[in-house]
Amino acid sequence: MKQLADDLRAEGEELNALLATLSEDDWRRPTPFKDWTVEAVMQHLLVGDWMNALALTDPYKFSATLERRNAARAAGEKVSGLEFMDHDPGAGDALRASWHQGQVALCDLFAVREPEARMQWVGPDMSVRSGATARLMETWAHGQDIYDLLRESRAPTDRLRNIATLDVNTYGWTFHNRGEDPPGPSPHVRLTAPSGATWTWNEPSETNLVEGAALEFCQVVTQGRNIVDVDLTLVGEVAEKWMSIAQCFAGVPETPPQLGHRAWHQDL
Asked: Are 134 and 81 within one domain?
């Protein structure tokens, strides 16, 4: 778990450095993610990290908090989770500091846990490894929302392997979440890592294949890019169908961004 926790920590440090450059006005700007402001994006990350820490350290409080949240939502209230925290994380740069402190503490918690130990979550229980990987995915993907807003580039790293593995493992989830059966066996996935290495998953196949840059694969499956906006090679109807609706995160089925909405190139 230490390596995974270190990867999550590094992802957080990179995002924290970007956030430290923002002006007060930047925090109120809408990102390309559902027009959430930077502040709303970071509140979402903060609450997710806080809930993970509760699940690891105080499962009774986690259950009680989740029960209160679900009851509020069932009553038609719009809640973010901030309402249930025992402190005000602030806004703007104060929010950045609150999130960063909590994220560092969460990394410390993950680092000393057994990877297959179980932890509660808003859906079924999951392994600690899955919990940490999901936090890494969320931090990276929502960080991309802010990079895209600012048209700032960031160099991809081999930390993406954690996210790509999660992406591959949620092939079936993409369809089951929409009330559909997967249209066929999971495609062979062959990706080029930022380091130049080749990463592969599933049974080798040249007729049921997703191939290309790991960065673009992760962008598509986290719904940060429309499949048409990237250069992935798709072979076979199953691969094409999966990549057109891929969703590696929990929650209701979401629609990928419209063609061109999240497309921009770092060399422009």
From this structure: yes
Chain segment 198-252, per-residue pLDDT in tens:
999 999 999 999 999 999 999 999 999 999 999 999 999 999 999 999 999 888 8
pTM for the whole thing? 0.93
- What pLDDT is attached to residue 37? 96
Last residue of a domain, one of 94, 116, 150: 150
User: What is the extent of the structural domain holding 9?
Assistant: 2-150
Q: b/e for 26-57, b at 16 or more Cβ within 10 A?
A: bbeeebbbeebbbbbbbbbbbbbbbbbbbbbe
Residue 185 inside a domain? The answer is: yes
List, in order, residues 6 or more apart from 26 with CB less than 8 Å away. 38, 150
pLDDT exceeds cutoff 90 at 115: yes
Q: What is the pLDDT of residue 267?
A: 43
Residue type, 127: S
Q: What is the mean pLDDT of the chain?
A: 93
Q: Using CA atoms, how far apart are residues 230 and 222, in angstroms rounded to an integer?
A: 13
Residue 86's CB: how many other CB atoms inside 10 A? 6
Do 214 and 85 lie in a common domain? no
